[in-house]
Amino acid sequence: MLKSDYYVEPTELDLLIFEKLIPTNHYLCQVKAIIDFGFVRSEVQDCYSERMGRRAMDPVLMFKLEFLGYQYGLSDREVIAEAQVNVAYRYFLDLSVNSPLPVPSLLSQFRTGLGEGRHQGLFDGIVAQARHYGLVKDRLRLKEATHVIANIAIPSTIQLVAQVRDKLLDSWRPYDPEGVRVAVDEVERIRRSTADLKDEERLLQRVEHLRQLTARVDELPAQLALTSRPDPNRVRLEAALATAHKLLADQDDPDGPDRLRSAVDTEARRGKHGRYYDGYTADISLDPDSEILTALNVLPANGDEAADARTLLEAEQTAHGNRVEAISIDSIGFQGSVLRDLSQPEGLNLTVYVPPHSQGIADSPYFKPTDFDLSPDGLRLMCPQCAACPFLDRCLVKLPAKHGRFVSKNDYQAEYEAARQLAQTEAYTQVRQQHPKVERKLAEMVRYHPGRRARYRGLARVKIQFLLIGLVVNVKRIVRLVRSSLKTPVLQPA
Fold this sequence. Notes:
Elements: H1 12-21, H2 27-34, H3 39-44, H4 59-72, H5 76-85, H6 87-92, H7 104-132, E1 141-149, H8 157-172, H9 177-193, H10 199-217, H11 219-223, H12 232-252, E2 269-273, E3 275-287, E4 292-300, H13 308-320, E5 326-328, H14 336-343, E6 351-353, E7 373-374, E8 381-382, H15 413-422, H16 426-434, H17 436-448, H18 459-486
Parallel strand pairs: 1-5, 5-6
Antiparallel strand pairs: 1-3, 2-3, 3-4, 7-8
C-alpha cells in the first residue's frame, strides 16, 4: 500500500538552498514547471492495495527516478546515488535534503510491477499533455524503424542445445530430483563419448537426448494441472519446456525463418538492417508538425515492420480518440496488402505516401503489367498482341533467358497504381521532404539515450525501455516548444 508519511516537505532552508544553487534555466526546473506528473498516480493506482502489503514509495517519485535514469543514461544504482547528492535532482523529485531515497532494487520492482501496459499508459499520458498544449496535429504521421541489438551472446548451435537442456533440467529438478540426476549422468556420458567426433554427430546426439528429455517433461504439466494455482517453479518449467520445443522445431526445419537465437532471451530473432543482427526492431510514429512521438512499438528483428504501421496508428487513435489523415512510410511499405489495409475507406482511410518501386514509375516503351490479361485458366499472363497474332503457333515456345521478361500482376494492382500516381504529385514531394525528421528522432533515441542496444531481455522489457526513451525525448520536445511559445523564462525556483 502507499505510504502516507513518505514525504518530507522542503523547509525554508531547503527552498533557500534550491534558489541559491539551481540555475533558473536548469532543464529539470523547466520540466517540473511544464509537465504535470500527477497523472502517474491514477495510471498506476490499481497496482497498489489500500489495506495489504508493505507501505510503498510514492509512484510519482519512482517514475521521476525512472525518468532521470533514462534522461541522463544512468542505471538504477547510479540514479539513486546521484539523487542523494544532486540538489537539482532533489528539487525535481520534490524532496527535502533530509528525505530518504528508495534502494535501487525498488526501481526494478516498480518497473516490473507496472509492466508494459502501464508504461504504455504513462507514454500516452505525456502525449496527451502535448495535445493539451495544442502541439500535436493529426494531418500526417511519419513512420520509421531501427534495429536494436539484443543483450545476449550468440552461442553455437551445440552450446544453444546445451543451454536449453540445462534450463529444462533446472526447472524439472523440484518435481523429480532423481530423474534429473539420471539425466545429468546421461549428459556427462554423451559428452565423454562424443568428445572426438565431428560437430555434426555431437549435435545430433545432443538434440536426440533433448528430445527424449522433453518427451518425459511433457507429462509433468498434465500431472500438475489439478493444483489450485501455478507456483513460480511451474511457471519456470512451462517456459523452459516451450523453449525446448521451439529449439527442436528449429532443428527439424533448419531453413526456417524464425529460429531461436538464445536461451536467455528466447524472443530475440535474427533480422537484417543493412547487415544481419540479432535482437529487435524499434518502430515509431512521429507527428512532423511538433516532432513528437505519438506511438511506439517493439518487434522481433524478423517482425513485419510494414504491417506494424496499422498497430501504431490504432494504438494512438485508441488512446487519444483522434483521427490521423495520412502516413508516410519508406519503401518497405510498398506492399499491396499494406497499402490496401491502410487506405481502404471502411478501415483507417489514410492517404499513404510511400516511394514506389522502380517498375512502372518512369515512362517506358514496353507493355506495363496492366496491359497483360490473365488467361482463362488463371495460370498465365497473356500478351495483349498474342491473341490476334497470326503467327502465334509458330512463335518461340520459350523466350531466351537473357531477353525474357518477368511481369507481376496481382490483386493489389489498383493500390500499386494509386501509390505510383500519388508519387508524381507535389503533395508527395512535400511530405517526403519531411520524412528525415523521423530519422533524426531515431538517431536522437539511439545516440543520446542509448537505444541501439537492449538494456533488458525479452520483448516486453525491451518495449518498456523504448517507451521510457520515447517519453524522455517527448518531454524534451514539449519543453522546448512550450518555452519558445511563452518567450519568457518558465520558472524561478521557489
